[in-house]
Design a protein that fits this description.
With about 210 residues, the protein is α/β, with parallel strands linked by helices. The chain folds into two domains: about 160 residues, Ribonuclease H-like superfamily/Ribonuclease H (Nucleotidyltransferase, domain 5), CATH 3.30.420.10; about 45 residues, Ribonuclease hii. Domain 2 (Arc Repressor Mutant, subunit A, Orthogonal Bundle), CATH 1.10.10.460. It is about 50% helix and about 15% strand. It has a five-stranded mixed sheet with strand order 3-2-1-4-5. Helix 5 links the parallel strand 4 and strand 5. It is globular.
């Protein structure tokens, strides 16, 4: 029986992609992930995540990672359809990995509704949707590590050109970068999510 786990990384960020990752493996091999020390990516150091990333892709039968660019995020936020956008991308991962059951970390306040939407978008695949699935199911924890490492790489790449910190609104380096860039150029760079409230506040102020 093939089990799939899916999670995202970078949803709350002001810039960069929103990454969705999925892994699939035989149910009997789940304990191999546990033995590796796989857990929710937020509970691991950056170094541990990178080491585990390599080990996870060796253990699982298949994996798939996809990135949602800021322009797609902005278009969906305008229509109040961010959860729908994420459901579409998760359904893409579900269809690609084609497991018997897929566990997803729900971004919707109603996990059941989110699961039903993914199931519908993936031609009736069996979906189990929960809040905090990344800390409850090791297969989702594995997906969260893949998503986080991929997202961090994208931010590292941007940081080679600009000093923009982690990309989160709580990071003063990020806020400073976005503010300075907008003041100087009167436009936002393509990797910034213009629909985000902290970004809109900066644009309105300047």
């Amino acid at each position: 029986m093939q089990i799939c786990g899916i999670d995202d990384a970078g949803r709350g960020s002001m810039l960069g992609p929103l990454v969705i990752a999925g892994v699939s493996l035989e149910k009997k091999n789940l304990r191999k992930l546990t033995a590796l020390g796989v857990k929710d990516s937020k509970k691991l150091s950056s170094k541990s995540r990178k080491i585990l990333y390599k080990k996870i892709i060796e253990i699982v039968d298949d994996y798939y990672i996809t990135k949602i660019p800021p322009r797609s995020i902005d278009a969906s936020v305008k229509k109040h359809l961010l959860n729908n956008l994420e459901a579409k991308y998760m359904a893409k991962v579900v269809s690609k990995l084609d497991a018997d059951t897929s566990y997803v970390d729900s971004c919707d306040v109603k996990p059941l509704r989110f699961g039903k939407e993914i199931s519908m978008l993936s031609d009736g695949h069996k979906i189990k949707s929960y809040h905090h699935a990344d800390s409850r199911f090791v297969v989702v924890s594995a997906a969260s590590i893949l998503a986080k490492v991929t997202r961090d790489k994208a931010i590292e790449k941007l940081n080679k050109i600009h000093n923009l910190g982690s990309g989160y609104p709580s990071d003063s380096t990020t806020v400073k970068f976005v503010t300075k860039y907008y003041k100087k150029n009167h436009i936002m760079p393509i990797f910034v999510r213009k629909s985000w409230k902290p970004v809109q506040r900066i644009m309105n102020k300047n």
